[in-house]
Amino acid sequence: MDIATQSIDGGFAEPVFNAQAVFRAIMNAMARPGTVQPLPQLARPPAPLSATAGAVALSLCDNDTPVWLDPPLQAEAPVKAWLGFHTGAPLANTPADAHFALIANPKEMAALDGFAQGTQEYPDRSTTLILLVSDLVSGPSLLLEGPGIEKTSMIAPPGMPRHFVEQWKQNNQRFPRGVDLILAAPGSLACLPRTTRIKTMEA
Amino acid sequence: MTAQPTGIATYNFAYLDDQTKRMIRRAILKGIAIPGYQVPFASREMPMPYGWGTGGVQVTASIIGPDDVLKVIDQGADDTTNAVSIRAFFKKVAKVAVTTETAKATIIQSRHRIPEHPLTAAQVLVFQVPIPEPLRFLEPRETETRKMHALEEYGLMHVKLYEDIARHGRIATTYAYPVKVEGRYVMDPSPTPKFDNPKMHCSPALQLFGAGREKRIYAVPPFTDVVSLDFEDHPFEVQTFDQPCALCGAENVYLDEVILDDHGGHMFVCSDTDHCEKRRGDSTSPSWGGRAEGAGGSGLATTPATSTPALRADPPHEGEGKEAE
Amino acid sequence: MYVAVKGGETAIANAHRLLADRRRGDRSVPALRLDQIVEQLALGVDRVMSEGSLYDRELAALAVVQARGDMIEAIFLVRAYRTTLPRFGYTNPVDTGAMQVERRISATYKDLPGGQVLGPTFDYTHRLLDPELAACAEVEMPAQRPVEPEAMPRVSAILAHEGLIEADGEMPLDHVPGDITREPLQFPMARDIRLQALSRGDEGFLLALGYSTQRGYARNHPFVGEIRIGEVELELDVPELPFAVPLGSIRVTECQMVNQFKGSAKAPPQFTRGYGLVFGQSERKAMAMALCDRALRASELGEDVVAAAQDEEFVISHSDNVQATGFVEHLKLPHYVDFQAELGLVRRMRAEYEARQNEDKAEDKREAAE
Q1: What is the percent of chain B with per-residue pLDDT over 90, rounded to a whole number?
Q2: pLDDT of C333-369, one tens digit each?
Q3: Cβ atoms within 10 Å of B111's Cβ, excluding its own
Q4: B245 flagged as catalytic
Q5: Lower CB density within 10 Å: C or N end of chain A?
Q6: Which residues pair with C51 in a beta bridge?
């Protein structure tokens, strides 16, 4: 299949309703950090972009939101063409210019503080990171607490960024500035907003 | 499928185009991630006037889907004209199911009240907000209040509340009573009576706030600390009423004063009409709250006796409809 | 027995039905057609397009008749419709120097290249009610002039040759024009954003503010450099094509106000500009806009901000009549829940006040008795 075909195929079959369904899953996940929100396959982007991450991008990104791609995605012309065709989002030159960042390989990703953190006056002007993970249960357990969590919740995504717990603690300390994470797994997603604290982590 | 022709003008599902919805959805996510912080958004003109709930309507329009069940209240009632009008709007532009029953709704849009029936994790409460900035009446300039929030400089608000105490012996704010969210942002809970403030604290439901004219969206995630501002020697307290609802007998609920004649006759009834109707339909159901099942219930509602509070013609007695000591 | 009021839906439906009836009025009088409004109430249609921020005469005319002639209501209808329209792109800036001019006057020069063209103006009419108009008398065709071969440069360009007027609203090279309908407002704002807000601002509000600057509240010595009304071409750049695509033309009114300026720490003595541009024909609005624009440039030019018209946050936050009318009129919505809360407080404070008064009286009596 050539790039042109790949870039046109694989969008939402029912754009208005699919975008709404994906957004509600993200909203619920962001409001209840650590909960796993199921998501049917609604988008078919070119690899290595996953169906879930592609659907998140389709529902949130457009020409008002510069998107940053990590090197594995950056290297794939079909991914760029697909995102360009379906969202119209311009590519951000640096992580600090990005409204959204798509990360296919979280393990090797740039430091969290390299992305837009927002300002003290406008903490909302920060990057939302969409991390592609293989699942939400097989990695080291993260015990979570904070707004949206009644007592504690637990999530275990594998292949997270290096020194993630330490990086995340620093992200907490920058509040109200900071980045928010969307973890996109096959068939489901979860979120870690900047308010969520990671209490302990199993070895 | 997304647009229905209506003569020379056509409209989208839930009125807003998808680009606008995406912009609002992004603001909602930022609001959830930064509880109590007012996210600026490019509010659109809606087909109802600014001040009529355009912020709430834009938030609802951006989150609602075909499977949602919508309840709209104004002053706690489903049948106030503006609630009827907004409900009809969504019925028309999104063809969603609507209900007056709090427990059956997935999205509840409200002006000025939080339902008496406890909300659940499966529900989203959308507030219509006229002036989202809690510091606005102390400092009219946005440039200044934004700095205050940035620096977490809320001294002005405490001075105002303390001046109240010095002058009136108490904090003379009865609605839109400022709260602090998760220990950081001072937030306007919208003009709900302060009676409803405690319901915001650690609610299982997501609470979203939309201010259309002022172009701000903010949020309180579930299970989030919402603390009404007060002082150690003047702790926050809610309004209490000396008598139960004259129709259903509920206590510990917010009551409206209904004027019966022109010489002081009045009665107090539930502001939350769904709560009142439920109790009158099923006055012994424990799930409907109120500590006075049996004391009021359907008996009062159907007995038009002058000895009941319902038809009293004397002037209000001391302490009626007022705050707890 | 008290029964909670029900039937809001029926009440609203009946109110709408009555409104439709009153809008139509006496059925023996022919109903207005949109083309009649477009042709014969053209300046009203222009105001609705201008403050509604949507250039469509037919929709504006529909809004005027649907609003029963209430201009702010008509503007609101157009704005609400505008919300639902997708955004395809941004046209190139219009070139008002290349305008097909119908009216062009300058107060700063007796004569100038291209001449003074009065055009369709009320200016020198005697405001005498015309009974012939009521009798639908025939109206003669207008006089025609041959198309002028002479160019009609903007007066500001003429002044610029001498270097006596500041440059024409230059922005930094990397400045991307904002869009107040797509981005939230933020203060302080760049001039392009401010001009957008003024252009859709309420004519009456801007008129009063402009008037206040003439009366000494932020006086800035204005001269009408030029007012021109006419048609300008709209062009859109399409990435796939090597040339700009013409989309048609729109009628606009442009006002260039030239203001004396003694100079400040920030700028040399020179003439400065106030700028007004609105859809359709509306000199009053364009002039008021230009006065307000110049007043709002106070900080930029190093002038003291002393009057309402110079206060950006005050002017821009309150210039939108759809917002203003909504919030003022929302006071008629029920507020009884909050009123109940206040009622409880006032009753309690009143009871305490009376108790104190009675104590004081008892005290006075006791003292008098002693």
Answers
A1: 71
A2: 989 999 989 888 898 889 988 999 998 888 888 887 7
A3: 29
A4: yes
A5: C
A6: none
Q: Do C185 and B175 touch (CB under 8 A)?
A: no
**Considering only residues 25 to 84 of chain B, which have any Cβ-Cβ distance to chain C shorter than 8 Å?**
40-47, 49-52, 54, 74-77, 79-84
ipTM above 0.95 for this complex: yes
Q: Please tell me the distance from the alpha carbon of residue C53 to that of residue B311, in angstroms, as a whole number.
A: 55
Of the CA atoms within 13 Å of residue C348, those in its CB half-sphere come to 23
Cα-based torsion angle of the residue sequence B246, B248, B254, B256 in order, rounded to the nearest 10 degrees: -40
* Nearest chain A alpha carbon to B18: A16
Cα torsion C79, C82, C83, C87: sign: negative
Kindly report the nearest CA distance between residue B181 and chain C, in angstroms: 22
The predicted-structure confidence for B68-108, as pLDDT tens digits, reads as follows 999 999 999 998 889 999 999 999 899 899 999 999 999 99
- State pTM to two decimals: 0.87
**Annotation says B270 is catalytic:** yes
pLDDT in tens, C69-101: 999 999 999 999 998 888 888 999 999 999 999
Q: Which amino acid is at C322?
A: V
Q: How far apart are CA C48 and CA A155, in angstroms?
A: 56
Give the pLDDT score at B261: 86
CB contact at 8 A, B143 and C311: no
Q: Could you give the CA distance from residue B272 to residue C4 in angstroms, rounded to a whole number?
A: 11
Q: Does A32 touch chain B (CB under 8 A)?
A: yes
pLDDT for the residue A8: 83
Give the C-alpha separation, A186 to B25, whole Å: 23
Tens of pLDDT along B213-261? 999 999 999 999 999 999 988 999 998 898 999 999 999 999 999 888 8
Q: Which two tokens stand for residue A195?
A: 């308010």
Cβ of A64 under 8 Å from any chain B Cβ?
A: yes
Which candidate in B31, B56, B212, B248 is catalytic? B248
Alpha helix locations (H) across A113-179? 164-173
3-state secondary structure of B224: coil
Both tokens of A23, joined, read 């957004």
Domain ranges of chain C: 10-82, 96-124+149-322
Residues C303 and C309: their CA atoms lie apart, in Å, by 13
Please report the residues numbered 111 through 150 in chain B whose beta carbons come closer than 8 angstroms to any beta carbon of chain C.
111-113, 130, 141-143
